[in-house]
Write a structure and sequence with these properties.
The protein contains nine helices and 13 strands. It is α/β, with parallel strands linked by helices. The protein binds guanosine-5'-diphosphate-alpha-D-mannose (GDD). The site of guanosine-5'-diphosphate-alpha-D-mannose (GDD) has 21 residues, from α5.
Length: 317
């Protein structure tokens, strides 16, 4: 199958591309020279396509040149915290970029499209609203959440107005090997790996440990995106999650235990957020019902693999 993907060098994009190439698909990855820092897949079935989500004409030419059967749209500004540094750019990339992508798909034979948004759309949810479903009310409380809510609405509109068979994938937090620093598991695992290798004293800096999140392994998330491309209903939203909320304290304790280290913890005010989502928990009932997908990899396994990945990456430096 001919597949077009944006964000192939990102965290989930890396794992999805890896899986697609292993299955023998031909994968064309949109590459933006200024923001793609990760190495591109070195595989005979992978072709980089230069382009920019913010340039409609360039994007349309890129998609038309490939004539894909499926498009996965994963590229974007992925950090809720950093979205406060430049709100307009976050909106331009995540909302405007998605509009351009859907336009490009529409003028290239209307392939199936999977648009990735985020559970951060929901904002500060009340305890009685949990677990969140696709019907729960979105109340985004940072520019990142607003940008993803706009992308979500565009998927529905493009199906209603143009019959573009697009599906929204709304993942909760995902973790596992190769996640970039700036998110909680790599921030903790990176510090533990540095301590293990004797490169920093046995002290860890942490942020808010009382927040709770619903974590899914990134490789399970990549499987979910494929399930949605194949069996998701057009115009629909699908939550991707584990159905279980754990505290950041639990994540910290589990990583420390897996590392076998004895460490001191210090609270770093710099790691606290101006607006924090206290608890996120979702239900994967809908995606399971429509596609058969369910999470397979345990939290402990994801954390062990993330930590091993950091130790390996740092050992090679
Ligand atoms: N990054 C980070 N670093 N977070 C920390 C730290 C730390 O040292 N210490 C505590 N935390 C807390 C944060 O305050 C937050 O409550 C929680 O750990 C998770 O933070 P992140 O891993 O940065 O993820 P996020 O929940 O803000 O956003 C992620 O998940 C969303 C989906 O639910 C991102 O992947 C988003 O792109 C995604 O939309």
């Amino acid at each position: 199958m001919r597949i077009f993907i944006t964000g192939a060098t990102g965290f989930a994009g890396f794992h999805l591309t890896d899986a697609l190439l292993a299955q023998g698909h031909q994968v064309f990855g949109l590459v933006h020279a200024d923001t793609s820092h990760q190495p591109l897949p070195d595989h005979p079935l992978f072709r980089p396509i230069p382009g920019n989500l913010l340039d409609l004409a360039e994007l349309e030419a890129a998609v038309a040149g490939v004539q894909p059967e499926v498009i996965y749209h994963l590229a974007g500004q992925a950090s809720p915290g950093r979205s406060w540094d430049n709100p307009a750019l976050t909106l331009a990339i995540n909302a405007g970029g998605t509009a351009n992508l859907l336009e490009a798909a529409r003028s290239a034979g209307r392939p199936r499209v999977v648009v990735v948004t985020s559970a951060e759309i929901y904002g500060a949810v009340r305890p009685e609203e949990l677990p969140l479903t696709e019907e729960s009310e979105p109340r985004p409380h940072h520019p990142y959440g607003v940008s993803k809510w706009a992308a979500s609405q565009l998927v529905r509109l493009y199906w209603q107005r143009y019959q573009l068979p697009a599906v929204e994938a709304r993942p909760f937090n995902h973790i596992g090997p190769r996640q970039a620093p700036g998110f909680v598991v790599p921030d903790f695992a990176g510090q533990l790996a540095a301590i293990k290798l004797g490169r920093r004293p046995p002290t860890m800096s942490v942020g808010n440990l009382s927040a709770e999140r619903d974590f899914t392994d990134v490789r399970d998330v990549a499987c979910a995106y494929q399930a949605l491309a194949e069996r998701g209903r057009p115009g629909e939203t699908y939550i991707i999650c584990s159905g279980r909320a754990v505290s950041i304290q639990h994540i910290l304790d589990a990583l420390i235990e897996l590392s076998g280290l004895d460490v001191t913890i210090t609270r770093d005010p710099e790691r606290m957020r101006p607006s924090e989502t206290p608890r996120l928990l979702g239900s994967y009932t809908k995606i399971e019902r429509d596609t058969g997908w369910r999470p397979e990899i345990s939290l402990r396994q994801s954390l062990a693999d993330a930590l091993a990945d950091w130790v390996q990456r740092m050992s090679g430096l």
